[in-house]
Protein: Glycosyltransferase RgtA/B/C/D-like domain-containing protein
Amino acid sequence: MIKYLSFAVLIFINCLFCYKYSERYTDQYELLTLFYLIGQITIIVFINKITAFKTCQSIVINTLIIIPFFLALLSYVYISPEQLNVDRWSVINSFLTNLLNGRYPYSAISHVGNPPGPMPIYFLIALPFDFFKAYSLLSALGFIALGFFYKRFYCETYNSSYLILTIISIFMLWEIFSLSNIISFSVLVAIALLYFEKSIMKPEKRMILIVVALGLLLSTRSVYSLAYIVFFLSLIKTSSMTFLKASFLATMILAVFTLTFLPFIIFFPNEFYEINPFIIQSSFLLPAHFVPILFIIAIGFGIFAKNLSERFIYAGFTLFLSIFFYSGYMVTQHGYSNAIFESKIDVSYFLFCIPFLFIGVLEHTKHNSLLTTTSDS
Structure:
């Protein structure tokens, strides 16, 4: 059931992008979205029943690797960032420009008038891409990484539906051509959590390094803390990790996360207390008093997740529902039409969940394949 709910979330996100952005080009956007919906469902129902398709598995995987790179190249050559309404590239550039010139970076303003909302490590990771103005490559890297990840660990599962739905997704075109990077950062966090789980039975030194990485990645976007909660609570509930050990590692993650703000507190103490990413995010997204509801959702999913695949899928559901809740709040504030078509809702935030669901579905299929093979033998 949760596998098909994961497909439903992906289809919903794809259709939402189709619905919103096709409205700008045709009056038949509702009909177009309906056909797109039917096409995706058809893929899920039939693609894995076609035996001959399994011989094309490597072609499909390589397509997810090649197409994003090709799109990034087109974007780099033909798209002028200054003409975009999406300002993630400009947020990065304005933040780093201020920082490198000795000014408080969180007082920077993007080319469309927005302050920088992400956490410090987000900008550190983006630094080389900003230096070469290769924002489209940063956008594409998440999709490319998913392709390599699938090829390396899940090629034997023969479950390509999620892979193909990602390849034909409108959100992939949008991410790369608008120079967004939500998928890329979410892929980093998802893969770090996967290696964290696999390091539980490994030497402590390796786990500590991964925990430090998780602390640093939390300092990209705070919303990933919801996925961390799902993982840690599930590991405790399933006795995969003791409460004491989980508490110690969680404290380490929070300590690393906190340390990333120390330079700003030391060198810009007054400015930091006036404006920082926590203040910015509570102003532009959900009010602070709604945040506990999101943590309650994460806690609930963390308690119910029983294995690795469910941890990823439930983390994806948590991120999806948190943005769904934010979207509902925006609709109540601005009305349905303004929220959707005038971009009061940033629909790209729904993409936070995609890499988690992607890996979760593959882990689920891999787990079931192993059970089938074991029972047959």
In short: The two ends are 26 Å apart (CA to CA).
